[in-house]
Amino acid sequence: MVKILLVEDNEMNRDMLSRRLERRGYEVIFAHDGEEAVARAEADAPDLVLMDIGLPGIDGCEATRRIRSGPAGTGLPIIALTAHAMNVDEARAREAGCDDFDTKPIDLPRLIGKIEKLLPDTG
Q1: Domains of the chain with CATH codes
Q2: How open is the CA angle 39-21-41, to the nearest 5 degrees?
Q3: Rounded CA gap, 4 and 115, in Å?
Q4: In CA terms, which of 21, 22, 55, 68 is 20 to 30 Å from 15?
Q5: What is the pLDDT at residue 59?
């Protein structure tokens, strides 16, 4: 089963998205902030990370940089999730090391397509 690390500080968003992903057959683990995301990426070996960019403490871009600089970061697909849909926001997320970018509110079919593109063995 594909394991997704969902990094989201908003409980309602986390609950809604995790339930929808679990119904699609994904195992979902959580991090509530950037520090926890870095630790969970190292400890739990997820297959993919859904990274909220607007996190308390270190933001999602900095958490992505830290994950990328560690042993778990090589080859780990990371999709940035944000309510900010400007081109500069996407550029900032990609510069930090995110492989893809999606906006909130989440369009689940679009997000699943991005997950399947980054993890082709799951589609």
Answers
A1: 3-122 (3.40.50.2300)
A2: 10
A3: 10
A4: 68
A5: 96
Among 75, 78, 74, which residue's Cα sits nearest to residue 93? 78
Cβ 95 vs Cβ 67: under 8 Å:
no
What is d(CA 7, CA 11) in angstroms, rounded to the nearest whole number? 11
pLDDT 10s digits, 33-59 = 999 999 999 999 999 999 999 999 999
Residue 103 to residue 46: CA distance in whole angstroms: 22
Q: pLDDT digits over 100-123, tens only?
A: 999 999 999 999 999 999 997 755
Six-digit token string for 5: 């690390």
Supply 33's token pair: 């902030």
60 token code pair:
């999602």
- Residue 8, both tokens: 């989201």
